[in-house]
Amino acid sequence: MFKLMIVDDEMLMRIGIRSIIDWEEHGFRVVSEAANGKEALELALDLKPDVIMTDIKMPVMDGLQLIREASRALPACEFIVLSNFDEFRYAKEACQLGAADYLIKTEVTPPVLGELLAGIRQRLQREHTRSGLAALPPDFTQSLTHLKESLFKDLISGLLDEKEAIAKAQQLQSGVRSEELAIVKMRIDRFGEVRKKYVEKDEKLLRFSIVNILGEIIPARWSKEIVIESSADYLLIVNTSEGTMAAVRKDIQQLCGDIQLTIKEVMNLSLSIGISAVVPGFRWLKTAYEQADQALRRKFLEGVGRTLFYEDGASADDVRTAADPASESAELALISVLESHNEAKLEAFFAEYRRALAAKTRNEREVREAYIRLTELIGARGSYAKRPHSPAAEPSPYEEVLSAETREELHDIVLRYARQTMIPDTPSSEQRNYADMAARLIQRFYAEDLSLRRLDSYDRLHNKGSMQSLGPVSAARVRASYVSFADVPVKVCV
Fold it and tell me: For the modification 4-aspartylphosphate, which residues carry it (predicted)?
């Protein structure tokens, strides 16, 4: 795999270039980034990249000077110039200095960049063959990033002992040492909504973008490794700085604040973060992971976009109560409020319910179960005509309750559902469900044997197609519910 460096004084441009493709699929690994030519030259002399992709106009040392200096020290290095339309004359000069090609920034696309890299890769491979350079050992032709991820996932799972882990970390040139370290677990808030914007291929791009931004904004003084746990969850494993626990905490909090701010500014995403206690080495990474995960679960009670330290409090799962949060008296009060059709009373009931529930329990499971019972009660008391019916693609109230990420979000979902059941009847809401229609027809023809198929026929003739008015998806669901019983006689007993 060939080494590549990106040089541009604009951070967003560096992030964009780094995130636009999967470099390793094209045979390259981004080994470093720099914000000016002087910084890039110092890094290049140390890292010896095969390709440098550089902007032209930069402070301290521009791209043209970088090409002159670096090409003398690294004659085999290839250069790609990034330019704007008004910098074309500089791009021509760069090509005269030996740059392989140039790209107009506004026209950089994955296909264009992929085609350019394919040509450069072929030239580099031919040069390696001519120079008699040995191929990389098979173990290292795999992605170094993936090998490191596998190492730390094994450590978190408790599958490696410390001695073996230290040996592998050294072999893979890991940035993290088996010394004082912590795990920072980051989660994209409301990921279900974020995911709707991405197809599977773009979801992969989302992961690359997050990792690239993290790599860009975390200062070099932090010894770190980044692990993708899922498209929503990312782990940052860092060796902590020396000093008091208060100083270490302040340092980590500042780092997490910078990460949250940049992700918001660049990608318009909110991150919630859970942070473990400091542990003494690789052997305790599993414990650190469990602590970070436990801290992150407090997001349910404290809200999204927070930085949560394990030491600040036990997880909601650890705070239990024998009290029943949704008492019978509260349920009776809700029934009374629903029947009153008074929205002010409904608001007051839910405000008091939230206060009483918070006083009784901080356990996520108990809070969620309490609101599930309210949802069931609302669904049972509201007439079918008044109950909100979501389109097939929309989640049901129960699905929303189960997927709510915070207590406040959960409260708002159930309150909204209760409000919807109190909307006065309208002509469009007069339609009843198939069971209601069947009950009316059974009462009408109580002396006869009726089948569900016959009920459907009567419905079409006498009610202008109640089933059809439900829409094709809803009607299909209703019929599917009864398909096994379509010809079973329904004997009415009175």
Answer: 55
Give the number of domains in the chain. 4
User: Which H/E stretch holds residue 53?
Assistant: strand 51-55
Note whether 189 and 270 are within 8 A (CB). Answer: yes
From CA 278, how far away is CA 286, in angstroms rounded?
Answer: 12
Cα(63)–Cα(437) distance, integer angstroms:
77
Which of the listed residues 427, 443, 466 is the one where a domain comes to its end?
427
Same structural domain, 448 and 423:
no
Over residues 242-254, the pLDDT tens digits come to 878 899 999 999 9
Q: Based on the domain organization, do 63 and 27 belong to the same domain?
A: yes
Write down the H helix ranges in 132-269: 138-141, 144-157, 162-171, 191-195, 200-217, 245-267
Interatomic CA distance for residues 421 and 384, integer angstroms: 9
322 domain residue, yes or no: no
Q: What is the pLDDT of residues 431-451, one digit of tens each?
A: 444 455 555 555 555 555 555
Task: Give alpha helix (H) positions in 52-161.
Answer: 63-73, 88-96, 110-131, 138-141, 144-157
51 in a structural domain = yes
Domain that holds residue 440: 431-490
The listed range with the strongest mean pLDDT (74-78, 136-140, 446-450) is: 74-78
Helices (H) and strands (E) in the chain, counts: 22, 12
303: alpha, beta or left? (left if phi > 0; alpha if psi -120 to 50): left
User: 465 in the Ramachandran plot: left (φ > 0), alpha (ψ -120 to 50) or beta?
Assistant: left
Task: Let me know if residue 149 belongs to a domain.
Answer: yes
